[in-house]
Amino acid sequence: MATQLSSSMRTMSSQICRQCATATAATARRTFTSTTAAQSSKNALRMRSNNGSSILSRTSTQQPSQSATRGPLQPRRTYKTVEEAKSKYRLGPFSWQAGLLFLIAGGGLTLYFRYEKARMSRARIAEANKGIGKPLVGGSFHLTDHNGADFSEANLKGKYTLVYFGFTHCPDICPEELDKMAGMIDLVREKHGAGVLKPIFISCDPARDTPEVMKSYLKEFHEEILGMTGTWDEVKEVCKAYRVYFSTPKDVKPGQDYLVDHSIYFYLMDPEGDFVEAIGRNFTTEAAAKVINDHVADWRGKIDRS
Fold it and tell me: Is 170 annotated as a binding residue?
């Protein structure tokens, strides 16, 4: 009996030990499995991180960034010689300096030829206006200026003379043209100095335009304009010489009303007393002054060349 009880006890003890061993082994396996899984996860994460860094590193090495290719991080190219540096700015076989000089020279020659062409044209016109033998415009005359002094064609020599025919009782045209004449005088003086141009105003109405009347009338326009008058025959003679229409009646009674008609031109005479050019009413003050200034410049150039 005792032997059977002892044997049963040993059997139960062996079973309990086996069950404990089995449970312990299962627990150990679960612990090992969990530890192994955690370690594997860590290793996998580390490998992915390392692979990403390697890829970025390879990408950076194989494909340089855009900022690195633009130049700030690269040294600028230095030219080996001065000639090589100059060649950067050349246009084919010519440099830009040569092209600029060519344009300047071409423009200067163009302006010079245009000036010479205009000058020769003015010279031909002046020679044609002189005619053959007797001048076409101008000639001998005798008048009295507004200071009471004698004045003839001889007084025209030595300077350019601007001659205008009109009368003091003219309502509109003569005042307008005298204003233009005053502007021309100032522009010529500004260009060539004083004393180059002699402006004179010849009356076509000698019966009413006495020297005193002329002087008082002309001072309202310009102090350099010199008025001229004379007898009816003297005025008719100078109008005929300058091809000016003259319609003033000869025998005029005091207080009698009559019409005075005349040509509307400025006559430019050169320093030799010869006719140069007629300036019409269609000319502006500036355009008329330019005509005079061009002729004065031609004359001075002719003197310098002689």
Answer: yes
261 vs 258: CA distance, rounded Å: 10
At 209 the three-state DSSP class reads: coil
- Asked if residue 174 belongs to a known ligand binding site, the reply is yes
Domain 142-298: which topology? Glutaredoxin (3.40.30)
Q: Are 168 and 208 in contact (CB under 8 A)?
A: yes
In this predicted model, what pLDDT tens digit does every residue of 110-140 receive, in sequence order? 766 565 556 555 555 555 555 444 457 888 9
Of 298, 242, 245, nearest in space to 267 by CA: 242
On whether the pTM is more than 0.90, the answer is no
Per residue in 140-178, pLDDT tens? 999 999 999 999 999 999 999 999 999 999 988 999 999
Ligand-binding site membership of 239 (annotated): no
Rounded distance between C-alpha atoms, residue 240 and residue 139, angstroms? 9
Closest by Cα among 173, 172, 226, 234 to 198? 226
Q: How far is it, in rounded angstroms, from Cα 212 to Cα 187?
A: 28
Q: Is the backbone of residue 113 left (phi > 0), alpha (psi -120 to 50) or beta?
A: alpha
DSSP string, 136-191: SS----EEEETTS-EEEGGGGTTSEEEEEEE-TT-SSHHHHHHHHHHHHHHHHHHH
